[in-house]
Structures are given as structure tokens and as C-alpha cells.
Amino acid sequence: MVLGTADWDDDVCTPMAQEHQCVVVSVDYRLAPEDPCPAQLHDCYASLKWFSENASSLGVSSERIAIGGASAGGGLAAGTALMARDNGGPNVIFQLLVFPMLDHRNETPSSFGTSDTRVWNREANIAAWEAYLGGADVSPYASPSIASDLSGLPPAYINVGTLDIFVDEDIEYAQRLSQAGVPVELHVYPGAFHGSNGFVAESPLSMRWAADQTAALEAALNSEN
Q1: I want to staple 129 with a disulfide (CB 3.0 to 4.6 A). Which of 91, 104, 135, 139 is the partner?
Q2: Catalytic site residue from 164, 168, 196, 206
Q3: What pTM value is reported for the model?
Q4: The domain containing residue 201 runs over which residues?
Q5: pLDDT for res 223
Q6: pLDDT confidence tier of residue 113, bands split at 50, 70 and 90
Q7: Which residue among 26, 168, 194, 196 is the active-site one?
Q8: Contact 203/176 with Cβ under 8 angstroms?
């Protein structure tokens, strides 16, 4: 929402494309505060529409599109899934939400009490939400945790660590998806902090994180069903 560029995730997207033999589109969405909400959501949804409309020319099926992201990108992916549902498409078969940033209210216990602030803390989170929302009325596309209806969304995979500021809102979102009839797979990794899967990628925990995530995405993209 406020940080990063599309090529920041080359080290994630390139292996993903190779591992799953798929096309990966990394959206260079506009950033707040220069471009507050809903600019980022509009960029993501427009990219999804473009990809769906041009899938055949890229050698892929428009019926096998997954969306995903990490942290703010995970929140934008969740919001984009809601937009696609409410606008009648494009069709999305899977959402990969990696420690997603979902709730602007910052009221969960972990938003106050997370014990590890090496990467993302309460102050940074509040500042990012304020820059992103820009004082506008908050829509569920921007803050998916406030969406009243989560039915009809694509199956979701959510992973987060117990030391992540987002752990409580991510668990709650997974529970609400399940209650709405959406297939969801939730992984909560003991001792993992925000982004630890990248910062300590060679640790046994991070390797298990990566293997679990890879297996879920492979099943979603390349299953025979």
C-alpha cells in the first residue's frame, strides 16, 4: 500500500513461475500517500481483468487464475477477490494470502501485544493505514475484515506466524471464510514473525512454510478437477 515496487518480488515470482509452470503477473500498483485508496485496488482489479482478457495470448487459461500477495499485497489480493465476486468476474479459482494486512481497526490482541517488532509494528501499521485510507470512508475492499458477506469467494490459503502483528486478524478472517462456506486452509507457524520466511529462508521452519505454500498453490493451479 505504501512501500515497494513490482520487481521487489522477483525472487519470489520467478521461482513460482518455474515451479508451477505458470505465468506470474506482479502488479506495480500506485502507492499511498501520493495515491491513496482506492488507487491500489483499482490497479489490482484492472490487472486481473487485463490478464483474464489476454490469457489465451499468454498461453494460459482464463479459467485457472489465482491471485495472491504478502502483507499489504495479501490484503489487496483479498480485496480484489471481493471486487471480482461483486462485479461478476473475472473468475478467480484461488487466493494465496501470506500474512495479509486485512483490518484497518487495529483492535486485535496481537495488534497491541505482538512480542516481535523487528519488521512491522503497531506504529508502522497505523501510519500505513492512515496513509492508505487518506481519511476516506472505509470500504470492505480496502479492509476485507469488515466485509459483512464473505460467501462466494474463491478457496483461500492463509499463512502467518504467531509473532506477527496480523496473526489474530488473519485467523479471524480464515474462520469467517470457513463459516461462509469458503474452503480455507490456515497455517499458523509457531515463532515466525512478519516476513521471517524470507529473512531466515534457510531455517527449518521457513522451509516447511515454503513447502506447505508450494503444495497448496500446485494443487490449486494444476489439479485435474
Answers
A1: 104
A2: 164
A3: 0.96
A4: 6-222
A5: 76
A6: confident
A7: 194
A8: no
CATH number at residue 64: 3.40.50.1820
- The dihedral sign for the CA sequence 97, 187, 133, 144: positive
Work out the burial of residue 34: count CB atoms within 10 Å of its CB; fewer than 13 is exposed, 13-18 middle, 19 or more buried: exposed
Rounded Cα gap, residues 126 and 122, in angstroms? 6
In the annotation, is 20 catalytic?
no
Options 26, 52, 71, 206, the catalytic residue: 71
Mean pLDDT of 49-54: 98
Active site residue 187: no
Mean pLDDT for all residues in the chain: 96
Element at 220 (helix H, strand E): helix 204-222
Q: Please state the domain count of the chain.
A: 1
Residue 1 lies in a domain: no
* 122 assigned to some structural domain: yes
Cα–Cα separations (whole angstroms), residue 215 to 4, 108, 159, 185, 209: 27, 30, 13, 12, 10
Look at 50-54, 88-92, 131-135, 176-180 and tell me which has the smallest mean pLDDT.
131-135
Q: Mean per-residue pLDDT for 144-163?
A: 98
Catalytic annotation on 71? yes
- d(CA 34, CA 47) in angstroms, rounded, equals 20
